[in-house]
Amino acid sequence: MSLVGKKAPLFSVPAVIDGEEIVEDFSLEQFIGKKDVIFFFYPKDFTFVCPTEILAFQEKLEEFEKRGVAVIGASCDTEESHLAWLNTPKAEGGIQGVTYPIIADPVKTVAHNFGVLAGDWNYNEEGELTYQGLPVAYRATFLIDKEGTVRHETVNDLPLGRNIDEMLRLIDALRHVEKYGEVCPANWEEGKEAMSATREGVASYLSKN
């Protein structure tokens, strides 16, 4: 079930911040009323596609911060695993230099509440609780506004890396909608024409494009 239009599930879990400090009660609630949030899940530490995405978010971090947006990463690994990976140089497959928070979700409750686990628990014929599928999160990304409402979500299968620039475009679109009350058509980018959400507005836009 999509979370778009609904309140994002809140959490208070361990996280690594600034690439070096473990905090035990990192909370999504601290951003409510203050900042929009890009909250993204990746499958696992010390893997292959994941560091390319995590580092790509870091490379664009200034652009997110310029827009008043916090970036938070998450996986089902422990905070100790995160810290070890954050202290591993890039040349050795690590993510050293990442400064935004990465939360730890080893019991998988956060991934479960956001609906992005690549598997689930079930009972076998003997009545034993087993896990079917992979106990990791899909490559999911959520744009959560200042009110704590999910405005966008995408969920990629494990081999499919995401486009970080698309996250920035969506934030720009949200800002435009909030500021001008217009809607953003297909392939809209900052600086391009938007349109009013009326029949006349659509007709005018289509006639010029």
TrEMBL record:
The keyword Disulfide bond appears for this protein: yes
Active-site residues, as the UniProt record annotates them: C50 (cysteine sulfenic acid (-soh) intermediate)
Boundaries of every Thioredoxin domain copy: 2-176
Pfam families per record: 1-cysPrx_C, AhpC-TSA
Oxidoreductase listed as a keyword: yes
Gene Ontology CC terms, in alphabetical order: cytosol
UniProt entry keywords in alphabetical sequence: Cytoplasm, Disulfide bond, Oxidoreductase, Peroxidase, Redox-active center
Localization, UniProt: Cytoplasm
Biological processes, Gene Ontology terms: cell redox homeostasis; cellular response to stress; hydrogen peroxide catabolic process; response to oxidative stress
GO molecular function: thioredoxin peroxidase activity
Coiled-coil residues: none
InterPro entries in the record: AhpC/TSA, Peroxiredoxin, Peroxiredoxin_AhpC-typ, Peroxiredoxin_C, Thioredoxin-like_sf, Thioredoxin_domain
Function: Thiol-specific peroxidase that catalyzes the reduction of hydrogen peroxide and organic hydroperoxides to water and alcohols, respectively. Plays a role in cell protection against oxidative stress by detoxifying peroxides.
Protein family per UniProt: Belongs to the peroxiredoxin family. AhpC/Prx1 subfamily.
Protein name, per record: Thioredoxin peroxidase
